[in-house]
Amino acid sequence: MFGWGTSKYVDEVATGTSNLISLLDTVGVGQPAHFWREPYVLGYLFGTASMLLGIASKGKIRGEKAGDLINQIFQRIGGVKGDQIVQEIMSNLRSRDTAFTMATERGSEIVAFLYGMPHGNNSSIDFEDALDLGRDQARGLEGRSDDATVRKYAYEAVVREYWIDAVKSRLL
């Protein structure tokens, strides 16, 4: 619809977002029947995909174009359930569901953190604690504490807490 360049964004963002879903498989959560109706799941994935799209396009894709691409991304991720997933996301956006909104913010903040972008002072996530944990793990496991290694371990910690553990508590 928007040319070759935008399909590249759909591929990149769908892959990045799908990786989060794959993490749930590795810890035994998988995708239970109600997975694609859970507001926290939808919000986190929506926030992640939206931020990844903004980063991949360097902020050039916005508004209706961004909405169309987010739709394509969830069509790709959800397969035959794609339309239903997008309808659920839209319903949660309209109703301003609390869990959906919180998860959307968390997903986008964590991606921003991963890419070294400012995440604001109003974050519900304590990134300083995550960085401290990342430093400890980097020194202990790899014997080094360069910024990339610290950020990797810090990212893993916040994803574990705000994605894996949060989704487990809601779905299981």
3D structure, described in words:
- With 172 residues, this protein is mainly alpha-helical.
- It has one domain (4-171).
- Helix content is 75%, strand content 0%.
- It contains 7 helices and no strands.
- α1 crosses α3 (63-78) and α3 packs across α4 (82-95).
- The chain is globular.
- The termini are far apart.
- The mean pLDDT is 92.
| Unreliable spans | none
Q: How many individual β-strands?
A: 0
Share of helix, binned: over 70%
Radius of gyration: 16 Å
What is the chains' assembly state? Answer: single chain
Following the backbone from N to C, one meets helices and strands in this order, namely HHHHHHH
Give the integer mean of the pLDDT values: 92
Count of alpha/pi helices: 7
Q: Give the CA-CA distance, first to last residue.
A: 39 Å
So what's the overall shape? globular
SS-derived structural category = mainly alpha
Strand content: under 5%
Largest sheet: none
Number of domains: 1
The gist of it:
It is built from seven helices and no strands. By secondary structure, it is mostly helical. Helix 1 (4-26) packs across helix 3 (63-78), helix 2 (39-56) runs parallel beside helix 5 (98-114) and helix 3 (63-78) crosses helix 4 (82-95).
Topology:
Elements: H1 4-26, H2 39-56, H3 63-78, H4 82-95, H5 98-114, H6 127-142, H7 147-171
Helix pairs in contact: 1-2, 1-3, 2-3, 2-4, 2-5, 3-4, 5-7, 6-7
Give the tags.
172 residues, mainly alpha, 0% strand
